Records
---
Amino acid sequence: MSRWTIPLMPAQHAYPHDDARFRLAIASAGIGMAIVSLQGRFVDVNPALCRMLGRDSEELVGRLLHDFSHPDDLPLTERLCASLAAGESPSIEAEKRYLHRDGHVIEVQLTSALMRDADGAPQYLISQLRDVTAQRTAERALRDLNEHLEQRVRERTAELEEARRRMEAFAYGVSHDLRAPLRAIDGFTVQLARQAEALDEQGREQLSRIRGASVRMGGLLDSLLELARIGRAELRPARVDVSLLADWAAAELQDAHPDRRAVVRVQPGLEAVGDERLLKALLTQLLRNAWQFSASRDAVEVDVEGERRGHGLHLVVRDRGIGFDMAYAGKLFEPFQRLHGSDQGAGHGIGLTIARQIAARHRGRIHAEGVPDRGASFHVELLDLPLPADDTPAHEGRGWGAA
Amino acid sequence: MSAKMAKDILLVEDNPDDAELTRIAFAEAGIDFRLHVVGDGVQALGYLRGCSTSELPSLVLLDLNLPKLNGREVLEAIRADPATRHLPVVVLTTSAEPSDVDTVYELGANSYIRKPVDFERFVEVVRQIGLYWLALNQPPGKA
């Protein structure tokens, strides 16, 4: 390794601080400035540098820069000086640490230039030292904060993941452990009903109420589970024929209620890019809702319409049921919020929450418009989900619903 | 359904209410059978290992949430043993977790049926299980 081997400067050499203007420029500079001999000694220092190091000029002049440098930076100092002396560059810039009189570390942005005489012989160094301690401290604090934040985010993510797992375990427990006693209630009620001749009319009616309640509760548990599942289901985006799904959901409802007269008009050719299973569930929920709240009508009448808007589908499901008061429109999609009693067709109060959840998973929204006794319409905005890379683009002909 | 030969069914069910309801449902469905009930997975495997080939049940009805060995572990053990590898196993449970369904088929279940809450529908489910597995289905090695 090269030592600092700059040729000695003749002692009688004239320093530039003989020049009054030059001296004034250095003295009045806002940043630390120094004339440094080729041996590395302070020849002259300005007041800003004195303040920076917490020392008088008398304490500095004649002393080696080394004496005030952070010990860890000495190899760096030597490298820089060697580079300057070798004439590799007219000036160098570096960040170095110095020590204040009271011992604290000062971080300095150092610029040094080698001055040469008319013959090109090195004469001395002019160094500018800018105190960047506050800036570096702030940057480190920010970096620490960022790392801390990232750590916090990791921790919180892990906590959320854990909470989600617990939630899943809970949903599973609800499914299994609450259904089992419910099945026992229903099953043994049926056994009891076999001996119903021992009961009077009121007793038989009460038995039938128990059965009704247990079956309703079973449906409620199923709805809660479906809601939990939709929130965490893995999306499988594909081109979906929404019209076909609407017809399918309507056919299933008709099968479940063969005595109910229903007219479901579905606009053909409604298309979306989404999860087919979830979109089917969405249509089932909306149609069932229309179905339920048309209980007092001679026939269920529903229109399913829509149009492509940008990269999505605007879907409308319109019924002619009992409608609702717009004052309560915000409550419709909240779980367990019901605007009507079960005598008017109300279900578990989860169906529309499921519908909203499905719309949300398609980056969409849902809202309802209603007029009491005139009907309700549900507007769903579905944004197309990104298709897997190997799928052909949506506008390439009519490949919809092939999956 | 006219086969007069008695059929053995092994029901693995820890909940006595469920076991009793299943027994009643089989009786109501009019299935000609002998129902053996065990309350956990260890007992289930013990029962099967105690059977000679001709004594093996025609069907195992397996719940998933069981004490000691759960239903998945029982199924794995049944499939790992050459003596019971081909035994028809119908998972009969209250869970309808898609992950359970997939796991259970992965482990070699023959069928997965969720018990409905409504008892009358359960009787219908049991009737169809009996019809299919005990009358229609031709099991291996028993012909």
---
Amino acid sequence: MRVTLASGLEDLYVDSDGTAVVMIDNAVLALSKLSTIVLQVLSAHGADGVESGDLWEIVRHAVGDPPGDVDGEAVVAGVLRQLQTAGLARWVAER
Amino acid sequence: MAESFVLRSLERVVEIRMRGRAAALADRARQAWSRCLTDATPDGPPIEVRWRPRRPSSRSSTHVDAGTAGAVLELLSQAVALAGIEHGAGRLVMLHACGVADPDTGRTVVLAGPSGMGKSTAAVHLGRRWGYVSDETVAITEDQRVLPFPKPLSLIRGERWKEQVSPDDLGLVVPPQELRLGAIAILSRHPEGLTIVERKRRTEFVAQVAPHTSYLGELDRPVHRLAGLVEPEGGPILGYRSSDGLESLVHQLMEVPG
């Protein structure tokens, strides 16, 4: 499944600590550092989006390897679900 | 019969027309709005005020219609504030907040919070030491000037409608003309007493203060504008139980270099 940035994003402010705050559909939400990185990756890939299974490999360059017992792919999958619930990301059909 | 006067509401200059029976309330209204009276020329539609018993109350930024004197005066306060807020949409960051300013420097501390959080009570208490800026709406320009809105304080005194009391009648300090933003804090009731409960990182603070704004989405790059008003290290959530303790917290915020 591919995932893209949702179209309703009105403003994104990324702070120097890597966290962010966004406005979407007039709601303002704070994002963790990892959510911010994922959102920026989605933004960079535009309408084509990213294969969700590839996302961890893309973002691990920015966040580094996690501790041994942490499943990075699962963490990113959780972040994607949160972004989707918040209306910031959406699944798209394969091209 | 009609009585009229002109008020400044943030950047709006609005004429108040007290029509018919409402004209009898004009002196009370003028007194309550003593610090907002102006000789400037109105720059938009007036607010038409009517006092008609046994009719449902209503108000907008251009009219007030109410059945009792108390209702007329409270709804007039809301209408005047609304006129200023609508006028500032797209230009000003407007917070549901009370504000007080250092009488010497104009450094302004803004305490944002929902209705019922005690903003007016805090303004009455704090305004005896610092300059009274507003008990309800604080507006901030793009260059971080604070616009005073020294409206009547809306005080619960046992009646159905909040009494509208002039800051002059309460002996509140007049702030300097030039006001600069010092700090924004969010008010929160705290059951264990008074302390700075938590300093939130800037992004979290912006997300928490956003619900206490008006017309935020009308601004260009709204979260950038809000984030620019918060210190890089974040902003405080002020837990408090009584206005007495609030004073020391505001004192700390006044002391922080802007």
